[in-house]
Amino acid sequence: MDEQAYRRVEQRLWDSVDRQPSERTIRLPRLGVRLRVQEVGEGEPILYLHGGPNAGATWAPVVAGLPGFRSLLLDRPGTGLSAPLRIAPDNLTEVADAFVADVLDALDLERAHVVASSFGGFLALRSAATTPARFGRMVQMACPAGAPGMAMPAFMRAIATPGLGRLIAALPPNERANRSIFRQIGHGSSLDADRIPQVFLDWYLGLQRHTDTMRNEVRLISSLASLRGRWDPALLLPEDLLARVATPTLFLWGADDTFGGEDLARRMVTAMPDARLEMLAGAGHLPWLDDPAHAAHVLSGFLCAPEPAGPGSPSATA
Question: How many domains does the chain have?
C-alpha cells in the first residue's frame, strides 16, 4: 500500500471534474470494520456502493453532475483506503443483509437514497429486502451481482481459476490489460470514441498499483466464482427476495453489459414490486462512465420525483 501515491492520482481525478471531497473514516457498529467515506455536496443524502475491483472515486464523473445532493462515496471493505473484511460464502448473506443499515448507522443517518453497481448492487438489494425503512429510493447501475442468469466475463473466469487468480493479483498492473477488462464488460465503443477520459484510466491503474484492492477483490471473487462460469449459491438473488424489495428502484442498464442483457434486465424489473428500467444504448457494465451527464440527469430526475399518490399507484415500468 502506497497511500500517498494513491491519493495523488485520485486527486487528479477529482480535479478533472472540479470537485474537492471531504473525507472521514467510519467504523461499522455491527461488522466492526473501518471504512473510508468521501463526501461531496449538500442536500438529500445518497450512499454510493461500487462493484469490484473498484473503489468509491469511480463515481466522481457522475457525482459532479449532482450538485443538489449530499453524495457519500464509500470504499467497500478491502478496496481503496478501507480496511479489509473477510467475506465468503458462509457469511455473505449476513454481511449483505445488514450492510446498508450498518453504514448509515455509522454515518448517523436514518435513511438515504442508494446508488449501486455490480457487487454493490447485490449488497443494496439484500439490504433493501431486510431493512426497507433505511432506503429512500434506489438506482441500480446495470446488472447487479447475483442476478438470476448473470454471465461471467473471461477475466473473472481467470480469477476463479485455482492459482491463476493469485498470479493475476501479483502481476504488475498495466493500462493495456485494464482496457481489455473494460472491453470485456461492454465499454469498447466508449474506449474507441475516447468517452472514458485518460485521467479516469490513470486513476484506475493507480488504484491497482498503490492499494491492496486487487489482492482483496481477487480473494473475494475467487471465493464466489468457479472457472466453469458458475457463481456460489450464496451470491444469487432469488425471486422471493426480489419480491420483497419494495423500495422504488430504477435500473439504469447498459445495452452492452456483458453480465446480462435486456432480457435479464426485464426479468429483474418484473420480479420487483416497484421497479422500472431504462436501457442505455452504447453503454456497458458501468454505464455512468459512458455518458456521465446523462446518467446524472436520469438519477436526479428519479430521485427528485414526487412520491406516489398512495397505495395502488401504478409503477412505471419500461
Answer: 1
